[in-house]
Amino acid sequence: MSTSPARTILVVEDEPVINQAITDRLRAEGFEVVQAWDGPGAVELFGASSPDLVVLDIMLPGYDGHEVCRRIQAQRPVPVMMVTARDDEADILVGLGVGADDYLTKPFRMRELVARINALLRRVDRAVELAGSRAVELGRLRIDAGARRVWLSEVEVHLTATEFDLLVCLAATPGQVLTREKLLADVWGWPGASGTRTVDSHVKALRSKIGTERVRTVHGVGYALETI
Amino acid sequence: MSTSPARTILVVEDEPVINQAITDRLRAEGFEVVQAWDGPGAVELFGASSPDLVVLDIMLPGYDGHEVCRRIQAQRPVPVMMVTARDDEADILVGLGVGADDYLTKPFRMRELVARINALLRRVDRAVELAGSRAVELGRLRIDAGARRVWLSEVEVHLTATEFDLLVCLAATPGQVLTREKLLADVWGWPGASGTRTVDSHVKALRSKIGTERVRTVHGVGYALETI
DNA sequence: TCAACTCGTGAAGATTCTGTGCAGATCAGT
DNA sequence: ACTGATCTGCACAGAATCTTCACGAGTTGA
User: Fold this and answer.
1) B98 & B57 share domain
2) Do residue A186 and residue A218 come from a single domain?
3) Could you tell me which residues are beta bridge partners of residue A5?
4) What is the mean predicted confidence (pLDDT) over A73-87?
5) Confidence class of residue A5 from pLDDT cuts 50, 70 and 90?
6) pLDDT higher for A105 or B41?
7) CATH at residue A101
8) Within an 8 Å CB–CB cutoff, is residue A127 touching chain B?
9) φ, ψ at A175 (rounded to 5°)
10) Domain check: are A169 and A203 in the same one?
11) Between the CA of residue B227 and those of A15, A60, B173, what are the distances in Å?
12) How far apart are the CA of A74 and the nearest CA of chain B, in angstroms?
């Protein structure tokens, strides 16, 4: 992220002091920032500047934030961070319905705004990445069955063939316990087999790669995948 | 994409609010959308409207999403985007399993749905292009299936007939792992063949021409083309 | 608490798989 | 038929992976 080109953020806020404060902080964080002070200006600037994210105040002259949100989302999907004067439930619900992805209630800390913006951008990055493949997500774990690849919090993890098959078998019913016999049948194709430590060994190997806590041992029964 | 005729999408979802929300958004994205609210209606509309893609909720009145999927796939192969209520359940099996489907877990972001739909359609486009005569780009690799020519970063690479067929077979599903058996069946037309090093030899030759790193070995499974 | 049972672990040997060089077979064009 | 290009698949080495075993740690139920 340090070497990638700067993200552009459109800040839409009619209050000059707040607008400038947000802008300054985001620039300090390394973002490109363009500013708009009303609805029509926001929609126009959105088309002109192609921002990666929009910070949008609900209360605006011209038409309100929801309308702006609708219009820019109609142009192109973009993550929107709504800013509301009070935590009015209705406003928030409408905003989320119109396509806002997150919202913040005034007064807010700049640090929180920055943190949420970064989180939102990360989320979208992952969504775009995900769109390219047929991956399944379970907590921080992402499994692409076709490519036989696995990621843990964005970092790819190398699994052997057996480890991968074992994971997929467990992931097919997250949280559900599978007996060793069931696993030996489904993963190894040894129906009726038992009395071997083979499953345990591979569970150990799998745990060492995706985190011990993600495979729960159910004493006397078997193993289950945790969605964390 | 701007000049091509609009793609038609069939949205199958019994919840009116969600159905309409998806429909509205997809129409805003420029798709033609037809709506169905239950299994029988979906199957009938599928035949009548010839959609390019189906968005399908698992939970449906009549018969469930899997059944609908089976019936429409029986009529004509079509990309299906499944929507599941929660990511537990054996529903994930469908996502992990073989089918040509992608899936999404509720609640989902409209943007993500749109991104994945576009990705699915691109995948299909690519397969069609590969079968036809237009050139496809995969990372720095450009493949013109009609002319049977390949370029790597603008420089043409000479491939033998077998190498080319092998590349096209791998390129039809970039990133996806294909077994040697599958390759022997599809490229060599020897269904059921195995126990030979023929595939390996041609992979070696292909690698020497397009770069070793572009063909990923999946130990114990097969090979996959990387899009780099 | 204690015995009985179950599970985790590390290591080692066995097994399987892949990369590679090479040679004979096959093919296409002359 | 000749020649050069291509294809096939074997043999081998090295790498990767799998399985099993022994034993200590952990868990359960009486």
Assistant:
1) yes
2) yes
3) none
4) 76
5) low
6) B41
7) 3.40.50.2300
8) yes
9) 85, -20
10) yes
11) 47, 45, 10
12) 6
Of the candidates A78, A131, A168, which has its C-beta nearest B96's C-beta? A168
Residue A143 C-beta-side C-alpha neighbours within 13 Å: 25
Q: The tokens of A10 are what? A: 């459109």
Note down the domain range covering A48. 8-128
pLDDT at residue B158 greater than cutoff 90: yes
Domain count, chain A: 2
- Determine contact: B220 vs chain A, CB below 8 A: yes
Please compute Rg for chain A using Cα positions.
24
**Chain A 137..156 CB hits on strand D (< 7 A):** none
Q: With pLDDT > 90 as the criterion, what percentage of chain A qualifies?
A: 35
- Pull the structure tokens for residue B202: 């041609």
pTM score, whole prediction: 0.68
Interface test with A, best of B31, B92, B219, B226 (most A CBs within 10 A): B92
Interchain contact, B176 vs A77, CB within 8 Å:
no
- Give the tens place of pLDDT for each residue, B199-223: 999 999 999 999 999 999 999 999 9
Question: Do B142 and B65 sit in the same domain of this protein?
Answer: no
B28, B75: one domain: yes
Residue that has been written with the tokens 């114990």 in this structure: B220
Asked whether residue B54 is assigned to any structural domain, the reply reads yes
pLDDT tens, position by position, B21-50:
888 888 877 899 999 999 889 999 998 998
Distance CA B62, CA A227 (A): 31
